[in-house]
Design brief:
The structure holds 3 protein chains of 3 kinds. Chain A is of the alpha/beta class. Chain A has 10 helices and 10 strands. In chain A, the strands form 2 sheets. A 6-stranded mixed sheet of chain A has the order 6-7-8-3-9-10, sandwiched between helices. The relative contact order of chain A is 0.18. In chain C, 83% of the residues lie in helices and 0% in strands. Classes of the chains: A alpha/beta, B mainly alpha, C mainly alpha.
Chain lengths: 250, 285, 217
């Protein structure tokens, strides 16, 4: 069964048609990258998967999205978002909270733990999973804003993992980071796909090439091509894909 | 050479411009320093002469010794406390509502109303409260004064709260929702806490504003110079009110007390604002 | 960059190239064995090895293309991919030449050899040693064994001269031997070519490891 399926998905902002009839499948336990130029609608597409689009009052969705076979529009959005974690473009740990509390706030407010010990264990587990534990274990009570950009982004990954999602959405998670931090996050994603399905939006096609098992190319809200990453990068079927990845675009 | 001439001309123009800017800046802050200076110059000797008794004592008879401003000081604190009790919860809720539903009719109306209220002549607020509280109750009272001050405080607190919340980058909002939080959790457990300092600033500005108000108290609190506190339904004093009343009297000692009271008022004001300014610099997202 | 992923791919390609190297050695070895014994079965085996080398070469090429498209190798990685691509197609070419030798065997399986083979197996043994030295260099990332490649290639050339002169002598004495002698001459010629190709592959490996260009002939 696929982790996510979109069926004739359309998204409008007011009159503007931003996602045009996209039907595609995202298999389980892979890194699925969505690439495309700025403003092509890839972030919008990602935000439709956890119904975060609904925060925007002008957004309107038609078609269907299925999470492990079940329509997400039949689910309570809060329950859906617990199953589909998200990491954003700018590292955004909550600035008023410590490193520990940034990870703990999700399980706490969602009542996923019974005791302080259980919470401690969960926080440690999430930080380890995000490959951050060793760097922060001695200063869990420091403000999260004291961490470097790359560490903050891994903290955000830990924060998302702490509510035990099945799918992880990442919206250009490394575009604000230096190459070393980027490499760490990319390695982490490859590690994480063993237990999660990862959907990665990126405008950096090298990144899509490096970490993606599958790659979708979106242009002006249309799905131009989707396939195995090596096929997309060695032998794209669509002329526009070729033009984009070879830098001959526009 | 022509080129050199141009550079000279530009340098001279720049110097003139900078001198002008400095001059105008000085002109703008001179009155402020003059106020600070004259209040200290006239008030400090009074405060030193009266000592602690000046803060705790009651008003003396005309033309005699210095006495104190105790009832007015207590009254100011009581009024600020009561008005906060009434005004702050409503103001915070209104600010959060306006920030959270910026496009809804009610949200837009709230915001517009708050902005109008901020600029509203405060004496009209006093008249309004007199109409609805003082006349029905038949007496000036602490509660009427506090009610008037609450109305004046609310827009400041609400507008700064709204602004502090709106300044939070939307990515934190999205992050909070993406963790499966309810709207109430997002607002109260995350956003309000991030905006804590901004909101606190608004609260303190509101407090400082009402601590110094005179006009709305004229027809509501009534003033009290000899009784500290008789109950919330009885008239009560306030420092600005006291200054206003004393300065109109023809007695030298009353004028001295007014200067001393001015200094106390200014110290209260600075005590709120200086920590506020220092704190403000730390705000960082 | 997910370094571990690229490292795994590099290991995988290295193993494929070593496998191809092994196939090549066998092809060269059995082609001469088949010739010595006029053994058609061994000649057929060379044909199969040649097919295997084609497939391996294609595999390696695909893997390298895919890795280049996805991971944009630079520096040592880039030199590795480039060298392995070259070595792979060189070795595939060597197997083609071995197959040509096996072809002579199949063509004249019934006829005895015009002379016992002495120098040709010597050439072959040197070639196999050279391939093994390349193997060692690829496996252990050291250029030390490749130092003697030039020497060995010179030896092969000398042996070729010797065989050439000898065969010309035989042909002058007895013109009936000419067709068979020409076949043998071609075999020697192929082996000489193979020696060249192995030596050139060694030069690629030196460039891969040290980033320094060397010329062998």
């Amino acid at each position: 069964m696929n982790a996510i399926e979109t069926i004739n998905l359309n998204v409008y902002y007011g009159e503007k048609h931003v996602i045009k009839n996209i039907t595609m499948n995202i298999p389980k336990n892979v890194v699925f990258t969505i690439m495309g130029p700025s403003g092509c609608g890839k972030s919008t597409l990602l935000r439709s998967f956890n119904r975060l689009l609904e925060l925007n009052e002008t957004a309107r969705i038609t078609g269907d999205i299925k999470l492990f076979g079940e329509s997400i529009f039949d689910m309570d959005p809060r329950e859906l978002r617990k199953r589909v974690g998200m990491v954003f473009q700018q590292p955004n740990p909550f600035p008023h909270l410590s490193i520990y509390d940034n990870v703990a706030i999700g399980p706490k407010l969602n009542r996923l733990v019974e005791s302080k010990e259980e919470l401690d264990k969960l926080v440690e587990w999430a930080l380890k999973k995000a490959a951050l534990w060793d760097e922060v274990k001695d200063r869990l009570n420091d403000p999260a804003t004291k961490l470097s950009g790359g560490q903050q982004q891994r903290l955000c990954i830990a924060r998302a993992l702490a509510i035990k999602p099945e799918v992880l959405l990442l919206d250009e998670p490394t575009s604000a980071l230096d190459p070393v931090s980027t490499a760490k996050i990319e390695s982490l994603l490859i590690e994480l796909k063993k237990s999660y399905t990862i959907v990665l939006v990126t405008h950096n096609m090298q990144q899509a090439a490096r970490v993606g098992d599958y790659t979708a190319f979106i242009l002006d809200g249309e799905l131009i091509e989707v396939g195995e990453t090596s096929q997309i990068f060695e032998n794209p079927r669509d002329r526009r894909t070729e033009e984009y990845i070879t830098g001959r675009f526009g | 050479m022509a080129v050199d001439y141009n550079i000279d001309a530009r340098l001279i123009k720049e110097k003139i411009f900078i001198a002008l800017v400095i001059l105008l800046s000085i002109l703008a802050i001179v009155p402020l320093f003059h106020i600070l200076f004259s209040v200290f110059y006239n008030g400090l000797p009074v405060l030193l002469k009266g000592g602690i008794n000046f803060l705790t004592g009651t008003l003396p008879p005309p033309g005699e010794e210095l006495g104190g401003i105790g009832p007015a000081l207590v009254g100011t604190f009581v009024l600020v406390f009561l008005s906060s009790l009434i005004g702050l919860p409503i103001a915070l809720i209104a600010g959060i509502y306006a920030a959270e539903y910026p496009t809804s009719f009610l949200g837009r109306a709230t915001k517009l109303l708050l902005q109008i209220m901020m600029e509203f002549p405060t004496i009209l607020v006093g008249l309004f409260v007199m109409q609805i509280l003082v006349i029905p109750l038949g007496t000036y009272s602490a509660i009427a004064g506090a009610f008037a001050l609450a109305i004046i405080m609310m827009p400041y607190v609400a507008v700064t709260t709204e602004e502090a919340l709106r300044e939070i980058p939307s990515t934190y909002r999205e992050a909070a929702f993406s963790l499966g939080f309810s709207r109430a959790q997002v607002v109260f457990k995350v956003l309000v806490k991030i905006a804590k300092r901004g909101i606190l600033t608004g609260v303190l500005i509101g407090l400082a504003k009402v601590a110094g108000e005179t006009a709305p108290l004229l027809f509501t609190a009534g003033g009290s110079t000899r009784i500290y506190f008789a109950g919330i339904d009885e008239p009560i004093g306030a420092i600005p009110l006291l200054i206003y009343q004393l300065i109109q009297q023809p007695y030298e000692n009353y004028h001295q007390i007014a200067w001393g009271a001015s200094l106390v008022l200014m110290l209260i004001f600075l005590a709120i604002f200086i920590p506020l300014r220092l704190k403000l610099r730390e705000v960082r997202l | 960059m997910p370094r571990e992923v690229l490292d795994r791919i590099i290991e995988d390609i290295r193993n494929d190239v070593l496998k191809l190297s092994d196939v090549t050695k066998k092809a060269v070895y059995f082609s001469i064995e088949a010739l010595k014994e006029k053994n058609v079965e061994k000649a057929d085996m060379v044909y199969r090895l040649e097919e295997e080398s084609d497939l391996l070469n294609l595999d390696i090429e695909n893997k390298i293309l895919s890795a280049a498209a996805r991971y944009h190798p630079v520096a040592g990685d880039l030199r590795f991919f480039h060298a392995m691509m070259k070595v792979s197609s060189n070795y595939e070419r060597i197997c083609d030449l071995a197959q040509k030798i096996a072809e002579f065997v199949k063509k004249s399986a019934e006829k005895p050899l015009i002379k016992p083979l002495i120098d040709i197996p010597k050439m072959r043994d040197i070639i196999i040693e050279m391939i093994e030295q390349n193997e060692y260099a690829i496996k252990n990332h050291t250029t030390e064994p490749t130092n003697s490649l030039q020497n060995m290639d010179d030896k092969i050339d000398m042996l070729y001269e010797q065989i050439f002169n000898e065969l010309v002598g035989i042909m002058v004495k007895d013109p009936k031997t000419v067709p068979d002698a020409i076949d043998l001459l071609f075999v020697a010629r192929y082996l000489e070519r193979i020696g060249d190709i192995v030596a050139k592959s060694g030069a690629r490996i030196v460039y891969m490891i040290e980033g320094r260009r060397v010329w062998i002939k």
